[in-house]
Amino acid sequence: MIRTRSVRWLLLLSLLLIPLTLFAAEGEDNGENGDKKEEEEKEPKTIAEVTEDSERIDGLFTLFRNKDDGKVHMLITKDQVDKEFIYFSFVKDGVVEGGHFRGAFWDNAVFSVRRHFDRIEFVKENTSFWFNPDSALSRSANANISHAILAVEEIVAKDDDKGEYLISVDDLFLKENFSQVKPSPDPDAEDEGFSLGKLSKKKSKITELRNYPENTDVIVEYVYETGTPKHFAEGPEVTDSRFVSVTYQHSLIRMPENDFQPRFDDPRVGYFLSRQTDLTSTEVVPYRDMITRWNLVKKDPNAALSEPVEPIVFWMENTTPVEVRPVIKKAGEAWNLAFEQAGFRNALVIKQQPDDAEWDAGDIRYNVLRWTSSPTPPFGGYGPSFVNPRTGQIIGADIMLEFVFITNRMRRTGIFNKASLFPEQNKLIARRNYCAIGDQLHQGMLFGMSAAYAAGADDMEVSKLVEDGLYFLILHEIGHTLGLNHNMKASQMLSVDGVNDVQQTGELGVVGSIM
Questions:
Q1: 3-class secondary structure for 211-233?
Q2: Cβ of 429: how many Cβ atoms within 10 Å?
Q3: Which of 49, 220, 290, 473 would staple 45 via disulfide (CB 3.0–4.6 Å)?
């Protein structure tokens, strides 16, 4: 009887507890499902939400910079996907001993923007080869030719209706993806001396953004550090060998859309080249190299002599010593004598940057004759240009000039320093288009000044010697910016006897080319 009653109580208690258990389980289940549903219903942030605390900087690639932490985002539009652009970089500031100096042109290439699902890729294109589109071989144009995926950024927000994608630019610019900044070690060097340390992710930063309709410029300070340098820098310009900064400007440029006609290389005339090999040609030398030149177009195509639609304009930076500005303008515009032979009047113009100019000499929209006074000058003058590698069209150029060229400072401060003979040229000469004539001309001028004073010349005569040297240097470096390379054979225009014939040299000069 007692046993039966106990069973009944247990049965009743079980019936009472079951609903509570079910209710608790249901409540727990509802909580989990609710969280999952909330996560599923939580939509990703829009572009406006991600950039709401950022300054918008419109241009070729619209940029957003967060006002609190400085983080930079870039907006990619559907019209920019699968399109080619031009990349160009140069050194804003560096240390010569580390292989960098202000104004040094670095990389110049073609890149494309691609989308791969939730990522945006920046791909460096190979422009070294050409396939005739009329050849069946053109269908295999990319066989065994590697492009380079420089950087990949995840899409952090998008607007499918507008075809806009927002990405961070950290991997793009704060790493050495677009340009290799730290030089590779020389495997043949017994001891390379001072070198840059490891790139600091924490200290490196984007310092400035400039945006225009045709180009986007990003200035980055790369900081290299090493706790225990194997070699310390010799020059006082390196404040602390453990921590060295190199500042670069990266420029993303719209591909020119014009009627520019590439002109193919003739080995009898010395031009810098955009090199291409025709892989559909049966020629022994299947080269399709294009010379680098400016896009000069006559205003009046029927006139024997016409001004160009757009002249080549160089600006003298406001850092240019006032006393040498007239000779620079005179030397630069002397090139118009050569352009007149090609049918152009006033093809090259030299202007002066105002002291209160709102534009910076690093703005690639301007061609600038720039002046610096460096502790360890890497050159007397240096005149590179950057181009469209697809056609050879010169897009812009600068000329870097060092104040030391018109002084005797190198002689007095570096006479007992082995580096004074070849100031860091071993690291710089490997760079494309490096020109050492400014340094060599400077050394010749130093000897000439000493010889002139020894012969009894006065200050006015020595000043004329310096002026003539600067005139020659400007002519030569502008020649480089016009696409001309060195013409060593021109030094053999006269025989040995002819060089010493005052009548011949008075009429013809000493060499056949300023280059």
A1: ECCCEEEEEEEEEEECCCCCCCC
A2: 11
A3: 49
Position 223: which residue type? Answer: V
The whole model's pTM is what?
0.83
Q: What is the pLDDT of residues 112-136, one digit of tens each?
A: 999 999 999 999 999 999 999 999 9
* Selection from 295, 472, 293 nearest residue 385 by Cα: 293
pLDDT at 245: 95
Cβ atoms 455, 486 nearer than 8 A: no
What are the residue ranges spanned by the domains of the chain? Answer: 49-183+193-254, 273-484
Residue 62 contacts residue 211 (beta carbons within 8 Å): yes
Contact 174/204 with Cβ under 8 angstroms?
A: yes
User: Can you tell me the distance from the alpha carbon of 317 to that of 94, in angstroms, rounded to the nearest whole number?
Assistant: 19
Of 473, 479, 483, the closest CA to residue 380 belongs to 473
Over residues 366-383, the pLDDT tens digits come to 999 998 887 777 666 777
| Rounded CA separation 295/339 (Å) | 13
pLDDT, tens only, 71-124: 999 999 999 999 999 999 999 988 888 888 888 888 999 999 999 999 999 999
Question: How far apart are alpha carbons 360 and 340 in whole angstroms?
Answer: 32
> What SS3 state is found at 499?
helix
Rounded Cα gap, residues 450 and 440, in angstroms: 16
Report d(CA 106, CA 345) in Å as an integer: 33
Q: Give CA–CA dist 291/236, Å, rounded.
A: 41
**26 or 86, greater pLDDT:** 86
Give, in order, the Cα–Cα distances in Å from 420 to each of 74, 157, 378, 411. Answer: 45, 55, 10, 8
* Rg, the chain, Cα only: 32
**Which of 266, 259, 487 shows the shortest CA–CA distance to 393?**
259
Query: For 276, phi and psi rounded to 5 degrees?
Result: -145, 145
Using alpha carbons, select from 426, 362, 274 the residue that is nearest to residue 90. Answer: 362
Q: What is d(CA 461, CA 463) in angstroms, rounded to the nearest whole number? A: 5
